[in-house]
Specification:
The structure holds two protein chains of two kinds. By secondary structure, chain A is α/β, with parallel strands linked by helices. Helix content of chain A is 37%, strand content 23%. Chain A contains ten helices and ten strands. A six-stranded mixed β-sheet of chain A has the order 6-7-8-3-9-10, with helices on both faces. The radius of gyration of chain A is 18 Å and the shape is globular. The N terminus of chain A is likely disordered. By secondary structure, chain B is mainly alpha-helical. Chain B has one domain: MetI-like (MetI-like fold), CATH 1.10.3720. Chain B is 79% helix and 0% strand. Chain B is built from nine helices and no strands. In chain B, helix 2 packs across helix 5. Chain B starts with a helix and ends in a 10-residue tail after the last helix. In chain B, 35% of the residues are buried. The C terminus of chain B is likely disordered. Classes of the chains: A alpha/beta, B mainly alpha. Chains A and B meet through helix 3, strand 6 and helix 4 of A and helix 6 and helix 7 of B.
């Protein structure tokens, strides 16, 4: 594993995730504008903002699901987008939870959790299954080990998806609107699991509008609009005393209900 | 008269068995090779390289857009002009394998494209290599889409194999031509030839139908 980013002058003191002047365009649309953001190890950062503000794109850049156009992005000491960086290897250190779960429908819950540990980490099957069962128990699904995704509720599927990420023992977990596709009564079961993960000291970036979650575990809330980071602060600062008109307008919309 | 024809036909049964055997062996070899090649081409067709994809696409269009009889003539009669001498069986296998690969390539590519991009992203995000993504995540899901038309295609290809009689291979169709010279009852002879093909194809038709029903299942592995 090369630590190319560590040897770059001026880049020696990096966080776990380090955006420096990152820009990205979809055609003429500037979806990320001059993003500079550093996430420290064990830090939990919540990203919020109106839809189309670039928050999903932001975290999808971190594991290379989206490519950046210019600027620097250094993750776990490695430069994303550098041909010298082994992205496949870097991705094993980054768990990614999708809005639409994306569980493998042809595999059971346990097989979903053990697939990457067995094939990527080369952990012996029996050992991986043991660990997988423990993880599923930890997210409250000990009795669903052999269920297929189609047999699970949305909340259960998302918990399996989180267990699937944890199975790789990642250094970073990214969540892309993990509760947006869920029925209201299932949101808390997923958030509870995320809180537990955060309390174990995981470095996390979470795109969500769940303010209860943000207040409980986030050290920082980042507010994005039109591809730029408009405001950033502690959850209390942001939710109680938003500094900009745009964040106030956004908060008034999500708080109205 | 009719009785004599029956006796004469009954006497032709070793030839008929040989023809049936030729049709089955030729089809089997070509379908196995064509399936392997077709899956390879289908995976490359949907893989990263745009150049490779369009080269394969052009070849598939060319083969699908020309008669099989012309293809087999080109291989058997024209290649020797360029110093590539092939016996009729090899030429038949090559032509049928190529045809099978082209049709199967498109079926496989369509199956792969039907797998939601979120599946590939999930596999990508967990660090699976390109081959692992294909083998563990994409292909098993694509198979649900691929299997019914694939088996249906096998039936079409077995019937297309009758064209090899044109280059002198003694398959079931050519046996028909040979027998009809001795037994001047084309209706009866080619009725029996048809029955021969049907016996080979019908189990596959049943299999295709069964697979199509199974596709409705919401979860689990596809099992034959």
């Amino acid at each position: 594993m090369t630590k190319a980013g560590m040897t770059q002058p001026g880049l020696t003191k990096t966080g776990m995730i380090d955006f420096r002047d990152v820009n990205k365009w979809f055609g003429a649309l500037n979806v990320l504008r001059d993003i500079t953001l550093s996430v420290e190890p064990r830090e939990v950062v919540v990203v919020c903002g109106p839809s189309g503000s670039g928050k999903s794109t932001l975290i999808r850049c971190i594991n290379g699901l989206e490519t950046i156009k210019d600027g620097h992005l250094i993750v776990d000491g490695q430069r994303v987008g550098d041909p010298a960086t082994n992205m496949t290897q870097l991705r094993t250190e980054i768990g990614f939870v999708f809005q639409s779960f994306n569980l493998y429908p042809h595999k059971t819950a346990l097989e979903n959790v053990t697939l990457a540990p067995i094939h990527v980490r080369k952990i012996p099957r029996a050992e991986a299954e043991q660990a997988g069962r423990e993880l599923l128990a930890k997210v409250g699904l000990a009795d669903k080990v052999n269920a297929y995704p189609a047999q699970l509720s949305g909340g259960q599927q998302q918990r399996v998806a989180i267990a699937r990420c944890l199975g790789m023992r990642p250094k970073i977990m990214l969540f892309d609107e993990p509760t947006s596709a869920l029925d209201p009564e299932m949101i808390s079961e997923v958030l509870d699991v995320m809180v537990a993960v955060a309390e174990e000291g995981m470095t996390m970036m979470v795109v969500t509008h769940e303010m209860g979650f943000a207040r409980k575990v986030a050290q920082r809330v980042v507010f994005m609009d039109a591809g730029a980071i408009v405001e950033s602060g502690t959850p209390d600062e942001f939710f109680s005393h938003p500094k900009t008109d745009r964040s106030r307008a956004f908060l008034s919309k999500i708080l109205r209900h | 008269m009719m009785w004599q024809q029956f006796v004469s036909l009954a006497g032709s049964y070793p030839l008929a068995l040989r023809g049936l055997g030729m049709t089955v062996v030729l089809s089997l070899i070509s379908l196995v090779l064509g399936t392997l090649l077709g899956f390879g081409l289908g995976i490359l067709r949907t893989g990263g390289s745009r150049l490779l994809s369009s080269v394969i696409g052009a070849w598939v269009d060319l083969i699908r857009g020309t008669p099989f009889l012309v293809q087999i003539f080109l291989i058997f009669f024209i290649l020797p002009e360029f110093g590539i001498e092939l016996d009729a069986f090899t030429a038949g296998v090559i032509a049928l394998t190529n045809l099978a690969a082209c049709f199967i390539c498109e079926i496989v590519a369509a199956g792969i494209r039907s797998v939601p991009s979120g599946q590939v992203e999930a596999a990508l995000a967990s660090g699976l290599s390109r081959w692992q993504r294909m083998r563990q995540v994409v292909l098993p899901q694509a198979m649900r889409i691929v299997l019914p038309p694939l088996v249906g295609q096998y039936v079409l290809l077995i019937k297309d194999s009758s064209v090899v009689s044109a280059i002198g291979l003694t398959d079931l169709t050519r046996v028909g031509w040979l027998v009809v010279q001795r037994v001047p009852n084309g209706l009866l002879v080619f009725f029996l030839v048809g029955v021969g093909y049907f016996i080979v194809c019908y189990p596959l038709i049943m299999l295709a139908r069964r697979l199509e029903r199974r596709m409705g299942a919401a979860h689990g592995e596809v099992q034959l």
